[in-house]
Amino acid sequence: MKTRESGADDNLLKSTMADFEKHIIISALEQTRGNQSKAAMRLGTTKRILSYRVRKYGIDLGQFCKRTDRSK
User: Fold this and answer.
1) Inside any domain, residue 47
2) Out of 2, 43, 52, 60, which residue is the most buried by the measure of CB atoms under 10 Å away?
3) How far apart are CA 67 and CA 23, in angstroms?
């Protein structure tokens, strides 16, 4: 039987794990400049699973693309 405290602990653990997973995904995407296939390989998963997680965490892939300033 779960107590109220263990339920709160479960929620905290789930939240912490989700934050950690999001951080790891963002790190891999930064290293690959948003290339999901390469990021998935680095993480040992598939592009399909990575794409699901990107949507789940609301990660904007546009922020990782290297943009060039052509006005300089």
Assistant:
1) yes
2) 43
3) 22
**Residue 29 burial (CB count, 10 A):** 25
Task: Say whether pTM exceeds 0.85.
Answer: no
- Dihedral of the alpha carbons of 14, 28, 55, 35, in degrees to the nearest 10: -170
Number of domains in the chain: 1
Work out the average pLDDT over 29-53.
Answer: 97
**Domain-embedded: residue 15:** no
User: Helix, strand or coil for residue 56?
Assistant: helix
Res 65 pLDDT > 90: no
- Which contacts qualify for 10-15: CB closer than 8 Å, 24 or more apart? none
Q: Is residue 43 situated within a structural domain?
A: yes
Q: Which two tokens mark 64?
A: 């990782």
